[in-house]
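Field notebook, page 285. I keep forgetting to write these up properly, so this time I am using the form the group agreed on. The chain and the ligand, pantoate, are recorded exactly as supplied. Prediction of the bound pose follows.
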Amino acid sequence: MQLIKTVAGLKKELENKRKENMSIGFVPTMGALHNGHIELVKRSVTENDISVVSIFVNPTQFNDKNDLLKYPRMLDADCKLLEKTGNTFVFAPDVEEIYPEPDTRQFDFGCLACVMEGQFRPGHFNGVAQVVSRLFEIVEPDRAYFGEKDFQQSVIIREMVKQLNFNIQIVACQIVREADGLAMSSRNLRLNEVQRKNAANIFRILNESRNKKDSHSVQAVKLLVENELNLIPELKVEYFDIVDAHTLQSINNWEETGAPIGCIAVFAGDVRLIDNIKYFSPSTK
Ligand code: PAF
């Protein structure tokens, strides 16, 4: 593990690796690393000669200033974790390195970005596209790894790669969960004891809803999930939608798509958690 803080420093190291024909894997993160991130890094290390892990809390993707301020930052602990995962460069730049000038680019992802996270966090995906495209230009990886907890993000990143003609393979990796089912997230660190315990119900109820697919309408499943979760102390559903995994548009009946996926955002106290559940087996997607 080698920590690098500047764009010039990283580019120089990677240029040397490229000269040796080494393949480059890239795992973009905002730090506060957990096992979900570590699984992405391990996969990148297995599939590439050298891996870059970026740790950068990107201000342009936060529509809520408080969320940005409270986002956990722990570079030393992150580096310690990454020391154990093999051949990596850790790229931890300051804001000025990534944005020497304000990034005013406006992306158009059409309806992929106007629903769910895009609807409730206006400008979020524009900020994600700004930072990820900038990081892709710096790292020029062969493969980039994203977790499927942020399912909508991974669909939008694929679209961005198409629009900007990046020659990068996007690898979406399965959600990593705690023993009680809660999807791993840096935000889990901010949950108090009761919220943490109750947040496990998000996956439990989503998972149970898969059994209702054959006997209940899409609408009924949506209502059941929302109502059950809202009954649990400290939890409040912001949205739960069942959409087509490719277009991300709501479906009205199960027959509309071979790839229905339920995407949810839930507040546990003031901590916003997201998760999703596939109502199809990925091989039939
Ligand atoms: O998923 C995240 O952690 C962030 O959105 C990403 C991709 C690192 C961009 O800041």
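OBSERVATIONS:
- The longest strand covers residues 235-244.
- DSSP finds ten helices and nine strands in the chain.
FOLLOW-UP: compare against the apo run.
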